[in-house]
DNA sequence: CGCATCACG
DNA sequence: GACGTACGTGATGCGC
């Protein structure tokens, strides 16, 4: 456990509380468009003072997430009397969030918990680490937290609230405040308390009896008959009240304390915010920070259209200047140039930085100059290379490390996971980070790709220099270390500058477009988790793969002869064209042409049909294809993918590729390792644990079907899951009217196919094809299904309608998935869009859930003192490498984190369940 | 480089 | 009446 929190004094700002105080305490103000902004001004001003005058080095702004909280489960009436917010205050709620972002301060909220609980939790965490805490609020409900090391500050009066002030208010020391509140109640929050007892009496009673429980136990001793009676009659109400007023200090918060180190505001974000709201006094005060004198501000803004200034950094002096500038600005775009797209085998060649404006630099570190022979005379053995002037790599790393690890400097990257892995290889743990690729992904997922070239075109109307233009293409392509420094400068510096500008264009959109939560609580924290998994890799048994490969090879040779024998001539079995000609022309099997290529279709379904008619050739070909696939894609390719340094396989997870929010895996893809056939499953035995360790695999049971039931609010299905019943059997029972007892496995199989087909919006045609039944039967099944589960039908219709109207659909966690094809004229594409729209919320919510589990996993394991490492994710499954002695405990922690991954944001009406398996290999564990 | 095929959830 | 027909991925080999 690291206790390295980068600040000494943490200010926890009660954002929700402040806005009300400011609204009533500051005279009305409006900005030019008439929007009231008095509370926003007060808030912004207060935060600026906090960070500048108080020199606060740690600040977090905490908000209430919504109206509901766990307290309503305790007492339904809690806060039920709250009047609506005044009309002039309502538009200011969103602006306050913007202000927080503009000041580059973290804003924290969690569904199900009030701001007060989050404040209590963070205050406790900070105190445990020896950090002083000031709670910026005057809310009496927070006074229970005051203790040595934790104080409060009234932001309107600028007054410190310590134990004396709390005593003045409640008549007891802070640690007894909840007992007093429990007795006295609170009409504003609708906490009942005991009738007839106010703060004065409560304080007196608590002082006399010690605490609430003792008082209630000894209530009989009270002399005043009325008071005694009231206390005895309302003991339970008092206990409930105490629960209501006691703040939760162990909320499973997602943002760690370390994230609250104060960061400099980003001028490009703060300036427009202050301008739009016409906060002129603040603009003037911030002029320096926003880019020196106002005149220079104007100059800089103008120069962004001018030619970029790229600097080649070749000595320490120049590098130190850039580092100082980045530190001053608090934000820097970073990009690495390497020798490979595979981060685990790449060598760092250079680093580019940009701090905005029109400036960027490139720091070459490991370039090789191919000398143009003729002048020096040293160059004899053609192609001998020497190094151009560069800062020694180790020295540059040493200088950059403090900046890249500085919690008060935001590092921006485009696909920064890659750079994080590169830096990690060089001993640098980059933090905190923002990723323009992920910003684009959460804002415009499904609309287009999220590569830098595309984003630059789209948002900046700028055509980037292509990698091919500097490194060449095809056979003559060279690695980046062989690119000349002038070309490398133009290419690399541009990448950093574009990244900086993309950040300025995209980040401010998060809050107004309501994507801040998805970005901040899911995608951004996941980057580090994935980077760690990729670096860890999984051990692969090369000799085993080799033997398997030879075995497949032998059988392929035999099969090949048999196939050629039956065909009567040798041909390339792997060529669908040649195979089709052999099957349908030469042997005259029934079948037809298909597809634009004009060739016969020879897919597995066709061959299976032919095989069922008793033809031997298709059977042999199917077997050949299976083995050929296993050999080329798995047993052969995987051996080549074993990293020579680590002896392990390191996949790469793409976080911004799948439109639904899923991850994808490549190089190699470890999300499609065979499992469905016995032969294929053997490949899983090649993935093994280190000696003394086991592999643990935990997968969600039927997540997507559970989510369909949940999202569609389909009670019949929900009940089945709540009761833990066999969902496919239930479906069969409903659709075919078959008793569940002694059900024919074939019937259940059909129901299973229907269940999955539904998730994808399958038609009668598709179901008929996948079950090999008539279309009429398929249609009857589907009709019966919708008849029994009308909620599903309704969900499908409503989702299509929503997608047509808005062009996107949403997951339960608020992720937007754009489905542009839904409004196309071409009915085929439109239908395609509709099916995608139906599926996306389901697949996407499942993706959100497992991502949440993954983010929490390292901390959960650490807290349980377990050293297991998460290695792989396969959509609904997580794979860990676990010390043998910790298997049981780890299994429980992992399951619990996975099953509770929706907490506390979302309360599903059905449980999620996860099943664990353990083994020496992945095959055994599954 | 597009297409067909097939591996996974 | 025809058209097409289940969502989301990545890797491989063929053939142009």
What does this structure look like?
Residues 310-511 form the 3'-5' exonuclease domain. It comes from Kiloniella litopenaei. The protein has 926 residues and is an alpha/beta fold. Among the domains are: 9-260, 5'-nuclease (Rossmann fold), CATH 3.40.50; 304-509, 2-Layer Sandwich (Nucleotidyltransferase, domain 5); 538-649, Taq DNA Polymerase, Chain T, domain 4 (Up-down Bundle). It has 37 helices and 25 strands. The strands form seven sheets. It has a six-stranded mixed sheet with strand order 3-2-1-4-5-6. Strands 7-10-9-8-13-14 form a six-stranded mixed sheet, with helices on both faces. The chain has a four-stranded antiparallel sheet with strand order 23-24-20-25. A hairpin with a 5-residue loop joins strand 21 and strand 22. The radius of gyration is 32 Å and the shape is globular. The protein binds a DNA duplex (9 and 16 nucleotides) through helix 24, helix 26, strand 18, helix 31 and helix 32.
